[in-house]
Structures are given as C-alpha cells and as structure tokens.
C-alpha cells in the first residue's frame, strides 16, 4: 500500500494541527486568555498558554488528525484516491469559538474517489472512530502512569487526551449528516449499533465531566 501526501495535503495537515492547538488552548485556558485583553501580557500567563498549546497539540490535535489519517489509509487500501483538505473557514470558527469559551472543531475531511462498495465505504468511515477508541486506551495508560509517578503534566496529558478521543469517537458515530455514523449505518445497522452504543455512551458519560476540571 503506497501512502503519499501532496504538498498541499501536508500544508493543510500542518495548518489544521496548529489551528486546533490554538483553538483548544483558548478553550482550556479561557480565563488566562481573557485576562490578557486590555493589559500587558505577563510572563506567567504566556508560559501557561505555551504549555497549554503543547497540551492541545498532543491531545486534541493528534486525536483529530489521526482520525482523518485513518480514513485516508483505509481508503487507499481499497484503491481510492484520498487526500485531506483543511476547511479554513471552520478552523477560523474553531479559534473564535475557543476564544469565546466554546468547544467547536471541524478541521476538514479526507476526500476520496473511485469505485467502492457499501461495505468498503462503511469501513473507511469506521476507521476514524476506531482510531480514537485506540487512542483512548493509549492516553488512559499515560494518565495511569502519571498518577502512579505523581507527574501532574503527564497525568493531565493522559486525561485530556482520553476525554477528547472519547468525545470524538462518540460524536462521529452519530448517524446524521456527513458524520461517520451515518455511513456505517448505511452499510450495516448491526455494526453501527455495536460501535455506537459504547462510543456514544462513553461520550455522554465523559461530557458530564468538565474538561477544565484537571487544569
């Protein structure tokens, strides 16, 4: 399987990753961001935002981008021409929403073309949420390791990464609009149900816990 990335695709991936880092930093540390308006930025506040940006890139950024790359890899596996395209207007809205204290992110999508069966389309769609579920396990391990070692930064990375990926998996399995869940349901309702019940249920459970509670 030959996975290639065009210059435009590499640029779009980089821009989406950075924009998501900015958006989630503004959301996670909204109080710090708001304190900067109308005043001279303090070294402490800038340091907090710098750490927040790294946290956001390592958690939300990785979760979103690996989700999209999973779609690309499976699409290419089935002989599709597939590339990620960033949605610059949505990325701008994500940053503005973060500054306003809201969580919103739609960085773009992998577009693919070629002859394909309903099953293959369903598996391409399912690949993104499946990667997020795998990342939940990875970040859970990081969280547990941080707890055991008493390392707060590692604990925070693990916890935020776990929550973001649970939410991503659950949200994308909703059977509406352009979301992955609708494509999976179109292929197989039993597969959709088996995937949607734990992911959507997990997202609802984690959604009830504020993201900012560990920061």
What does this structure look like?
The protein has 215 residues and is mostly helical. It is globular, with a radius of gyration of 18 Å. A two-stranded antiparallel ribbon has the order 1-2. It has eight helices and two strands. It folds into two domains: 1-116, no CATH class; 119-208. GO terms for molecular function: peptidase activity. The chain crosses the membrane at residues 14-33, 45-66, 86-111, 123-145, 157-179, 191-208.
Count of separate DSSP helical elements: 8
What form results from the Cα inertia axes? globular
- For the biggest β-sheet, the strand order reads 1-2
Report the mean per-residue pLDDT as an integer: 89
């Amino acid at each position: 399987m030959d996975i290639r990335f065009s210059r435009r695709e590499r640029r779009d991936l980089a821009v989406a990753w950075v924009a998501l880092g900015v958006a989630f930093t503004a959301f996670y540390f909204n109080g710090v961001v708001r304190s900067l308006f109308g005043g001279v930025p303090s070294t402490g506040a800038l340091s907090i935002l710098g750490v927040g940006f790294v946290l956001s890139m390592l958690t939300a950024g990785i979760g979103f981008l690996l989700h999209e790359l999973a779609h690309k890899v499976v699409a290419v596996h089935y002989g599709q021409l597939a590339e990620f395209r960033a949605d610059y207007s949505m990325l701008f809205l994500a940053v503005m929403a973060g500054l306003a204290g809201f969580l919103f992110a739609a960085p773009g999508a992998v577009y693919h073309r070629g002859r394909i069966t309903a099953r293959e389309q369903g598996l391409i769609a399912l690949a993104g949420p499946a990667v997020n579920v795998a990342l939940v396990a990875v970040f859970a391990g990081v969280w547990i390791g941080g707890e055991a070692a008493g390392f707060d930064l590692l604990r925070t990375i693990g916890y935020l990464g776990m929550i973001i990926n649970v939410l991503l998996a659950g949200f994308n399995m909703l059977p509406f609009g352009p979301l992955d869940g609708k494509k999976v349901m179109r292929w197989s309702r039993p597969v959709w149900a088996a995937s949607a019940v734990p992911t959507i249920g997990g997202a609802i459970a984690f959604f009830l816990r504020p993201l900012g509670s560990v920061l």
